[in-house]
Amino acid sequence: MGRFAATVLALAGLGFLGFGAAIAADPAGVLGGVGISGTPAGVVELQAFYGGLELGLGAFLLACAWCPGWRRPGLWLVLLANGGIAAVRLLGIAQTGEYIPFFTCALAWELGFAAAAALALWRGRNPG
């Protein structure tokens, strides 16, 4: 797997790191814009789960970009994580009828990275 796969992994990793760091630092500020708030314990949970999980995913994806032997598993993670988030986001929109402008950007990111990872996996299987 070549440069395209490494680029997809690096960009996805940086995205997860950036979002994770922002949520770890200020979960209410980042998530308040979409209506998510909570008690002090809830804020800790947001920091830990959204911030900590995204930081870990980002670090792993950067490692996958760096290590050629890890690229295929990393791309599967990008595909399945972003695809799963987008699928459930779309389900939630369909169930509730709720749609805010943030969802447009989020879905573009999620579906875009899922498609880029799928393309990188396909290219890695079918070189040329």
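(ticket continues) Second input and output from the same batch:
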Amino acid sequence: MRKKIALVTGGFTGESVVSLKSALVVEKNLNLELYDVYKVFIYPNLWYHESGSGERFPVDLNDFSLTLGKDKITFDGVFNILHGSPGEDGKLAGYFDMLNIPYTTCNALTSAITMNKGYTKAIVQGIPDLFVARSIQLFRQDGDTVDQILKELRLPLFVKPNNGGSSIGMSKVKEPNELQAALDSAFAEDSQVLVEEFVSGREFSIGVYHAKGKTTVLPATEIVSSKEFFDFEAKYAAGVTEEITPGRMSEEEVSRVNRIIAQVYLKLNCNGAVRIDYFLEHETGKFYFIEINTVPGQTETSLISQQVKAIGMSIQDFYTGLIEEMFL
């Protein structure tokens, strides 16, 4: 008998548009010989499944079930592709934990911690050979922040929402007079903001996942952007960024990066597939951790698909592995 899988998408933030695109790709590549797949849209006060004819069926939040005609549909598991809140920050994971429904992504605690860039950096910076940029974590109620930042950190700076994703609200600041506008943009997305010193280096993004009893680090993708940094447009608009998979690294760099990435995955107690962004500093080759995405994009231009194909695996087999892992 085929397992019933809920493919959850939507969300409460600006990342919902990316989540919808990701869900289309996942839906197209799931093995329908193994699974009955029901796409479930999750928005504030509106959770529903939509039939092929466009009819909406509400989700019963008491047990996360659907009633289709005379049939009540309960789910064996959840494929979570909901970026941002509540799918990536632990809220949805906690809900499924209470209902004893397994899911493909990290648990509630890991999801909540890794959504906060500042807290994540504090946890991983003890890993050997891993470095983090000097930074300040700001809260909305903080005062005189511009003077504090310019006193403690060196320009240029990256200013970004501490709990955001997809580079929404993120800015690069080169001059002191640009800082306040960058802070305002980031605070429009979140009540906490992370300000980091710029690291001059080659930028990479790398996927890692656990399936069939082992953790696999995928080939890294090197990001060569025509823009100043890997922002929302660079991530999701075709032609803006050159993405080289596998990225151009020496054997020593590949070995060191893979060891560090596996340790990050372990130390943060990750599950399923995550994507980690990092720099290799130009002058020294040091590994600088940027951030982790616990529900990485699966759009047509996303990086995980490129990396899976680079190891000779089909996207369908990759998704099947993630689903089967949650039943072990």
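Agent notes: The chain has three domains: 3-105, 113-132+199-325, 146-194. The radius of gyration is 20 Å. Closing as not reproducible unless the customer responds.
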